Amino acid sequence: MSEVILEAKNVFLSFRGVAALSNVSFEVRRGEIFSIIGPNGAGKTCMMNCINGLYNPKQGRLIFKGTDITKMSPHRRAAMGLSRTFQKIELFGGMTVLDNIRLGRHLHLTSGVLSSCIYWGKTSREEIEHRRFIEEEIIDLLEIEAVRNEVTGMLPYGLQKRIELARALALKPDVILLDEPLAGLNLEEVEDMARFIIDINEDKQWQVTCVLVEHDMGVVMDLSDRVMTLNFGVKIAEGTPSEVQENPEVIKAYLGEVEDLYVSRR
To answer: How do residues 251-266 score in pLDDT, each as one tens digit?
Structure first.
């Protein structure tokens, strides 16, 4: 078993007295694809928001690479190697594809204001190195060379999803949070995105641990090493894809009781 890189301990989150997450605990091991599933409103995105710092849980702790990040700001978590894509695309539509991706790299810039204004020596070499990484590694991996200079907001939805993944990868993360990366994609785009997720997880150059929230159960069961199921903010199952698929509580959460199904059909 590989080391635990991300851990949630009894995370509790509520909004105006309504519990969105109730004492949720889990561990993510380095190098795996860990998926979080559940019906709409189960608390999946709330969990992702707690991990990357958009929400602060009322109780519980979040541990990343051995450090308690529960009260840490989102940008400090990103600097530690935690990146994120969003359920709804959060790109800058008026900027080019390349500029959007470059934004994900800014935390690695070490040059000061003065040297950046002069743009000489270390600053120049640093930008060239970051540009090489983006253009030769990320753009090539995600096959977006043809649109690198296009205005992002004018591109099809499927390509924008790919660009958001590229920006998250520009951080060179240890863990990437993928919030419904397949939502709204056609079959061909789903197959491409699934392939990219496998590549960043398994390729020796990347080896990114993935936390995946997704509704496409076929993809989840094919890609995941382990799966956790939430329902109304409560963890009801965790295990291998086959174990979770056969869990009665998971079946009930998605399909309801047999009696309920019978009544609804009459």
So the answer is: 998 876 544 433 433 4
Higher pLDDT, 135 or 257: 135
pTM over 0.90: no
Domain range for 200 is 1-81+173-266
Q: Which of 151, 171, 191 is the last residue of a domain?
A: 171
Domain total for the chain?
2
Closest CA relative to residue 128, chosen from 152, 102, 154:
102
Query: What is the structure's pLDDT at 254?
Result: 84
Q: Which residues of 83-108 are buried (b: 16+ CB within 10 A; e: fewer)?
A: bbbbeebebeeeebbbebbbebbebe
Q: What is the DSSP letter of 244?
A: H
Q: How far is CA 104 from CA 21, 71, 82, 113, in A?
A: 29, 22, 11, 19
Q: Report how far residue 14's alpha carbon sits from residue 136's, in angstroms, rounded to the nearest whole number.
A: 44
Q: Per the domain annotation, does 88 fall within a domain?
A: no
